[in-house]
C-alpha cells in the first residue's frame, strides 16, 4: 500500500500486536489509535477537553505518516487530498482527514488478504 513501507509496516504490526482479530471493524482500529494528531492550537483555548487520554500514539503516528506519504504516490489519496484542500482545509487538516480513510483500506486489505491495487478514481460528472 503506498505510504506504508517496511518501517511503518513493522510499527503497525507492533502496534496492533500482529493480530487484527482484536478489531472487529476498522472504526475500532482507528479508535484504538486515537484521534489524529491535531495541529497546534492558537487563540484563547488550547487542547480538546473531550480528547481521550489513553490511545496508541505510535499507531496514530503510523496512520498520519502513511497518509502524508500517500498524497505523493497514490492517485486516489491525492484526489481525496485535493478535494479537501479545495474545500478550504489546510495541508495538515487535509492529511488528518485522509488518515481514517487509509485505516479503512488497510483493515480491509488485511482482512481479505489482498494486495493494494491502484485503481483510477471514479470520474465525477459536473
Structure description:
The chain is mainly alpha-helical and 126 residues long. The chain has a domain at 6-36 and 56-112. Helices cover 56% and strands 0% of the residues. The chain contains 5 helices and no strands. The chain starts with 5 loop residues before the first helix and ends in a 14-residue tail after the last helix. 22% of the residues are buried. The model has no long low-confidence stretch (mean pLDDT 81).
| Total count of helical runs of at least 4 residues | 5
Shape: globular
Structural class: mainly alpha
Question: How confident overall, as mean pLDDT?
Answer: 81
**Helix content bin:** 55-70%
List the secondary-structure elements in sequence, H or E: HHHHH
Largest sheet: none
Number of strands: 0
Cα end-to-end separation: 30 Å
Radius of gyration: 15 Å
Low-confidence stretches: none
Q: How much of the residues is beta strand, in percent?
A: under 5%
